Amino acid sequence: WSVKDGKSTHTLSGHTSCVNSASFSPGSQVVSCSNDRTVRLWSVHDGKATHTLIGHADIVKSASFSPNGSQVVSCSEMTEQCDYDRTVRMWSVHDGKATHTLSGHTSIVTSASFSPDGSQVVSSDNTVRLWSVKDGKSTHTLSGHTEWVYSASFSPD
Question: Tell me: the pLDDT tens digits for 123-136?
Fold first, then answer.
């Protein structure tokens, strides 16, 4: 959509089920994720898909870019039909390949995002987990919530 006149500039077609999230890169791309189990990268200039990121075994709930736009983080849930994904994945924007699969959540992973400096990822289910971008290892688990944590993010500073 154009913020100047409110008109559509491109229709991003390709997902085969509802889209759960879409966000802009610091550059010229959009990332979207869907119930079709995919994450897609799109060019802002022509609206065409540049990569389809395949690897999640269930609905992809959230996807966002790293601060420098070189990586994407996505997270997946579990359903009655598929109770084994519950992962966070990091992807290279350059080639569309997974760089890390972050495992350890025990329930639906509802959100995932990068820290402002791009060195960590935060994700949430009924816990909040911090992960190292460098090696994909969990660095902290914040537990004690009695219900779902639907969104978690870092402070800008």
Answer: 999 999 999 999 99
Q: How far apart are CA 105 and CA 55, in angstroms?
A: 17
What is the rounded CA–CA span in Å between residue 100 and residue 142? 21
Q: Which two tokens stand for residue 40?
A: 């897609």
The structure's pTM equals: 0.91
Dump the DSSP string for 16-82.
SS-EEEEEE-SSSEEEEEETTSEEEEEETTT--EEEEEE--SS-EEEEEE-TTSSEEEEEE---SS-
Backbone angles phi, psi at 97, to 5 degrees: -95, 145
Q: Which residue has the tokens 């991003």?
A: 12
% pLDDT > 90, the chain: 76
Q: Which of 98, 34, 46, 54 is nearest to 72 (CA)?
A: 98
Could you report the per-residue pLDDT of 18-76, keeping only the tens digit for each?
999 999 999 899 999 999 999 999 999 999 999 999 999 889 999 999 999 999 999 98
Terminal Cα-to-Cα distance of the chain (whole angstroms)? 30
